[in-house]
Records
---
Amino acid sequence: MVTQIENIKFYTVQETAELLRVTPQTIRSYIKQGKLKGKRIGRPILISEANIQEFLTTPENPTSINTTLQK
């Protein structure tokens, strides 16, 4: 379930992994490497829709080709 705070959509690690068709561990790795921006809000790590779009449009990221964010 997408979390919306002040009209900004946030996705959990699991939801982001499903969108990008990778494992949750890969998403955590991308965050740790600084390739994908995520914030811990309470217990879960949340990734904004804008940060996912930025990640997808960065040429050096492995999932930037042929992957689009589903709306």
---
Amino acid sequence: MKKITDTLVSEVTEVLQQVDPNETTELAMEIKQAKRIFVTGTGRSGLVGKIFAMRLMHSGYPIYVVGETITPSIETGDLLLVISGSGNTATLKHFAAKAKEVDAELALVTTNKDSDIGQMSDCCVSIPAATKNRLEVEPATIQPLGSQFDQSAHILMDAIVVYLLQDPEGKKHSSLNQKHANLE
């Protein structure tokens, strides 16, 4: 088991070392400047989006998860953040087109900047991880499906939260508990 764990950590480390820090900084600035943030993804990428949404909520950002019953309409000045390994998922392309239709900003976290959603995006973070498609250009992995992408995206999104928390004008780690659930 230790060998498997070490391999997973090594794989994700290798992937994250190849992410362009300028792209992640640009995404952080898009989040900081947005009137409201909307996050979406399907499957495990959608779960990563929900984890990220929770952390941004704890940090005081106005954030919504697409598809939840309390999510309002997206508008001009808002940001739609799509997390999609392929960048071509049909429902996510629809959401991206809708966001652009109302002149909202669009950001994508993906393995494929040249995807349909990537072509529409104002900001794109490329994570060079393996996906379920196992293309020749993707790194080797012992993990099933798109696990390497999802794990890398999760850590990268947590890093963006930490980056935002380091802003002198932003929330401090000590204030996050005020937004943490207390109906437990």
---
Amino acid sequence: MIAHKINLVTAGHPLEPDRRPEYITAKPITIESNVWIGTAATIVSGVHIGKDAVVAADAVVARDVLPATLVAGVPAITVRYL
């Protein structure tokens, strides 16, 4: 279940200033079954969201989310296990 206005960001640039113009970095985002992503959440490249997890509205997910876990905040942290 995916709410309105979410951002799935799979691309970016290297951190080193002299390398930024050279190329774009990209990694896939993996979302397993029965995941609920709240309104305006952002999920960045390379993140894996486990089965039955919940991402709260407005969360910024920069790390993997364990299965059956509620994450919230900026950056998103584990609030509780479901």
